[in-house]
Amino acid sequence: MLACLQPGEIFGEMSILSGEVRNANAIANDNVTLVVIEKDILTSTMNETLPMVQSLAISLIKRLNNSNQKINEKPSNNTLLTVCTILHLMVENLVAKQGAAIGNLPQKRLRYYDLCSTIKDIVPLSEVDIDHVLDHLVRHGYIKVFSVKN
């Protein structure tokens, strides 16, 4: 999981604005009410905004697309850094979902299986590679594994 959205937040807008293929999924943890924004409605609304706002939106979309392309073209060869970055984002997300203060441990822990699945969904690493990195982090005291993986 890369993000936990709050009420009123929008997702999926980039594929409409940029014309790119959608590259993420959304899963609701509770009952939700969704408002679908059709492409033609969004386009007509954007066309009615000030030219400066249109230019700003186009500029931001181009920058984000360029950044995403660079990330995809040059994936990190540093497996340790990659796994640590994903682990950090998942813990931040868990803290945000639980409303804990930054720096405090979340009450609910990450499941080993979920962590490995998420990492494999994001980067092309084998479970052996992921296990190796996590074992390294445990040996050096950076993380603790509280139960046996499934």
Automatic annotation (TrEMBL):
Domain Cyclic nucleotide-binding: 1-63
UniProt-recorded name of the protein: cAMP-binding protein regulatory protein
Classification lineage: Bacteria, Pseudomonadati, Thermodesulfobacteriota, Desulfobacteria, Desulfobacterales
InterPro entries xrefs: cNMP-bd_dom, cNMP-bd_dom_sf, RmlC-like_jellyroll
